[in-house]
Write a structure and sequence with these properties.
With 238 residues, this protein is of the alpha/beta class. It has one domain: Rossmann fold (3-Layer(aba) Sandwich), CATH 3.40.50. It is 36% helix and 18% strand. The protein has eleven helices and ten strands. Strand 3, helix 3 and strand 4 form a beta-alpha-beta unit.
Length: 238
């Protein structure tokens, strides 16, 4: 039996992992999907006080309170920032860190990049948050798109601009997999692909303990390709 902890990206919640959770639990594994403060069923906690560190602590607390070890930690999209911070703090509890079409930051980098419209929306909102895009951006359509559209919630603004300071050597001590979703590729994550294939990334520390692979699906593979994603997660548990 393996321990899986699943962390959603922006605007989502633990709900987005439902199909993957069902598949993993059907094989007897222990699975926890974390909802980050201020979104999903915790949207009532949305406030200007939420920062990237809040979300890192959400995941650290879930792992520590469940007394989990040898964890396969899967982080989606924005949560690549979160997972990197978790590995920096409690990497000894992790077996594998899986970046699911996720941000892989450099030390001192923020998630925001150049998306000024989101920053402006957050500043104009009393809860300092910005609204979700349409699910078609994630390559979803039909019932899947409708399901995501009615469940997405605004995302806290400060985690978008908070920089993450971490020790690449500590994070690189955990085995890592980067999953690149290509049909369609999301531009902000597509830009991560060159760095995770660069031998010089993280000062040469990234590639020795990491692998990269592609899935021919959109940015929400836990919804659009749950069986393929689950297979990759199972491989990471070995």
């Amino acid at each position: 039996m393996a321990n899986f902890v699943l962390v959603h990206g922006a605007w989502h919640g633990a709900w987005c992992w439902r199909r993957v959770m069902d598949l993993l639990q059907a094989q007897g594994h222990r699975v926890h999907a974390v909802t980050l403060t201020g979104v999903g069923e915790r949207a009532h906690l949305l406030s200007p006080d939420i920062h990237l560190d809040t979300h890192i602590q959400d995941v650290v607390a879930a792992i520590e309170n469940e007394e989990l070890s040898d964890v396969v930690l899967a982080v989606h999209s924005y949560a690549g920032m979160v997972g990197t911070g978790v590995a920096d703090r409690i990497g000894q509890r992790l077996h594998h860190l899986v970046y699911v079409d996720a941000v892989v930051p450099k030390p001192g980098e923020a998630w925001s990049a150049t998306r000024q419209a989101r920053l402006d929306a957050a500043r104009a909102n009393p809860l300092h948050s910005f609204p979700p895009p349409g699910p078609e951006v994630f390559g979803l359509e039909g019932e899947d798109a409708a399901w995501v559209a009615r469940r997405q919630t605004p995302h806290p603004g400060h985690p978008y601009t908070d920089v993450l300071d971490f020790d690449p050597a500590r994070v690189a001590s955990v085995a890592r997999t980067f999953i690149h979703c290509t049909r369609p590729a999301l531009a902000t994550i597509d830009a991560i692909w060159p760095r995770v294939n660069d031998p010089a990334f993280w000062g040469g520390l990234w590639l020795p303990g990491a692998r990269t692979l592609e899935l021919a699906t959109g940015h929400d593979p836990m919804i659009s390709a749950p069986h393929a994603l689950t297979q990759v997660l199972l491989e990471c548990a070995v």
